[in-house]
Amino acid sequence: MLENEANPTISKSTGLPRKRFYRARAHSNPLSDSHFPVPISPCHVDYSLHYPQFFSSSGEVGSIKKVQFADVGCGFGGLLISLSTLFPETLMIGMELRDKVTEYVRERILALRTTNPGQYQNVSVVRTNSMKYIPNYFEKGQLTKMFFLFPDPHFKEKNHRRRVISPHLLDEYAYVLEVGGIIYTITDVEELGDWMKSCLENHPMFEALTEEELEADPAVKLLNTATEEGQKVARNEGQTFQAVYRRIAPSL
Amino acid sequence: MENTQPEGGENNRDLEVAPALISVHPTQDSVAVAVGSDLRVFDLRGNCAVTLVDETGEAFHKDSIRAIRYGANGKLFVSSGDDKLVKVWSTDSWRCNASVCSEKRVSAVAVSNDGLYVCYADKFGVVWVVDLHGLDGNETLVNKKASPLLAHYCSIITSLEFSPDGRFIVTADRDFKIRVTVFPKKPLDGAHEIQSFCLGHTEFVSCLAFLFTVDYPQGFLVSGGGDSTVRLWDINPGTLLDTYEFGSKAGIVDYKGNEVSCSTVTDLCTIPGSNVVAVAVQSLQGILLVSCDLSSQTFGAVKVISNMGDSFIPTSLGCSSSVELLWTITGVSKPHGSNHNSLTCVRVLSGFKKTIPDAALPELTVVDDNEVPGAEKLLEKLQGSVTVEEEVFLAAAEAVKTSMCNLLIKKQYTTEKREFRKRGRNDKKTKH
């Protein structure tokens, strides 16, 4: 509808897409039937479309890189952009349910790739419902990090099953994470923070990182600062609650 | 709140009918049929109809039964459905030993191979487990509580199956997924370890069954779905071994003589100890036999058994592990507002041999009504009457098909229609 003219959605000064043209609702219902294409299985996802530079140079089948980081509910993609330069050799993907937001992130990545040649080749975004389709994108033990930053709090008790961190969904996250992989969660809602922490604490396949490990992890520092939501909280001098857990092999 | 009731997508409970189900005792001691809320059991040992005894608070089922199953050792029988009650019966006394209240309507049940746990799946995608320790047949446990075992994210679970070795519990859902989960030592704490996902179906998965023989005790998983395929899986890594796409290939024609291009598998039944799967397909009169070459892990010969009588479209299949008979049933619960009573017809097929050469599928014959085990007495009990008029079954099959599609297929709307419904949303307004 909008993109037909001299493309006003791209800012002239920075070359980046302008957010005002990608207005979206704050939340989306994860329970509704999806009308976007879903890959049948992980091997049906054509990652060469997402990471053209990584896939054009390495032609051999054996050396195909796999996505290792997933930002679930990536929003406007702030975290991905920061992670991209921090881990330039790791493929990472954002998953977002809202179509306009996904479109924004896609444009943003493409713009960054143009303005910074050689950089941001390792990030991409897909529009999907990660609560339903995580196993359609990743194989068992494929991921090393999963991020859940400022998810929708869903205060009402009847809507708790819409929360992206829940005891049953953690089983699926444990499936796609390799042993030793790390799950990062943060929120500015205390109630949700407690919920996410207790879900992870009570799950037999996750254990908390120690203080020292948290200190040493460069990704932890980004939780508060990298995302748009995090910056908003910081501006308002709000409190945040994080829970960072490692995937462990279950004891029998 | 979004308006979740889309125009055109009628969610009318009046149209919902339940297919008739059949289940056979592992050693063919008895046969059970469920049609609507009615549970009918015939004792083949004693050659008599069984009178069920239910002294739990809420006796018998009040709404359509959606799932029935015998435990692997034959001591238990479980029934459940739309009335949210899971009833565990003793197959000796046919007393209801436990009645568990589910929060949601139940879509599938299974009994662990040791007979100590009953699992059931509800329509919100949660599988629950009930501990049956201490259930020895005499006292009735009314207040048994179920604990959540695992969940598919808000997707109707269509089938629930334990692997032959009892290590895994396999669940299939309407979102094209089959999940293989390790069945834990302490199931009441939940099953958290996912072994694999079997992904490949392009429509809802409707049924699951394990094919296993002496040479392949682990067995292979067979699944059927709304994409008119039967698929063969190795559940350990979750690999798709082979796909059999029926329809035009098998030359299936519907009752009007038109070729059926796409149809749903309604039930699967593996013939114990053999490499043959019996498949019931919507709109197919008769059944489909598919053989499996277990050494090369592929499907082999296929045969349509169509001599079961005109307009006999089975809704459910059953087989014992000892006797070489395949039990089939067609019928529906009484649809609301219909003047027919609930309709059922049972047919039994014989001709299976213990060892079937890979290439040749057996020639099955319908057992004459008088030679069916239990003969007229059995038919009278299970069908409700000895003779059934045939023409009503086509209507019944149609009703089952519509009901299943409404339940499991995502409603499709044109883009314009969807955009129209979003017209009031702030993010859809062109200028702010």
Automatic annotation (TrEMBL), chain A:
Give the main localization category: nucleus
CC terms in the record's Gene Ontology section: nucleus; tRNA methyltransferase complex
Which biological pathway? tRNA modification; N(7)-methylguanine-tRNA biosynthesis
Q: Give the E.C. number(s).
A: 2.1.1.33
Q: Which residues bind S-adenosyl-L-methionine?
A: G73, E96, L97, N129, S130, L149, T227, E228, E229
| PANTHER family linked | 3-DEOXY-D-MANNO-OCTULOSONIC-ACID TRANSFERASE/TRNA GUANINE-N 7 - -METHYLTRANSFERASE, TRNA (GUANINE-N(7)-)-METHYLTRANSFERASE
Please list the reactions this protein catalyses: guanosine(46) in tRNA + S-adenosyl-L-methionine = N(7)-methylguanosine(46) in tRNA + S-adenosyl-L-homocysteine
The Gene Ontology terms for molecular function here are: tRNA (guanine(46)-N7)-methyltransferase activity; tRNA binding
- Which InterPro entries does the UniProt entry name for this protein? SAM-dependent_MTases_sf, Trm8_euk, tRNA_(Gua-N-7)_MeTrfase_Trmb
Q: Which PROSITE patterns match?
A: SAM_MT_TRMB (PS51625)
EC top class, in one word?
transferase
Compartment(s) of residence: Nucleus
In UniProt terms, what function does this protein have? Catalyzes the formation of N(7)-methylguanine at position 46 (m7G46) in tRNA.
Name of protein: tRNA (guanine-N(7)-)-methyltransferase
- Active-site residues from the entry: D152
User: Which lineage is the organism of this entry classified under, starting from the top rank?
Assistant: Eukaryota, Viridiplantae, Streptophyta, Embryophyta, Tracheophyta
> What's this protein's family per the entry?
Belongs to the class I-like SAM-binding methyltransferase superfamily. TrmB family.
TrEMBL record, chain B:
Entries under SUPFAM superfamilies matching the protein: WD40 repeat-like (SSF50978)
Q: Name one GO cellular component term.
A: tRNA methyltransferase complex
Keyword tRNA processing listed? The answer is yes
Q: Where in the cell is it found?
A: Nucleus
Superkingdom field: Eukaryota
**What are the protein's UniProt keywords?**
Nucleus, Repeat, tRNA processing, WD repeat
Pfam families recorded: WD40
Give the Gene3D superfamilies listed for this entry: YVTN repeat-like/Quinoprotein amine dehydrogenase
This protein is called what?
A: tRNA (guanine-N(7)-)-methyltransferase non-catalytic subunit
Q: Which organism is it from?
A: Salix koriyanagi
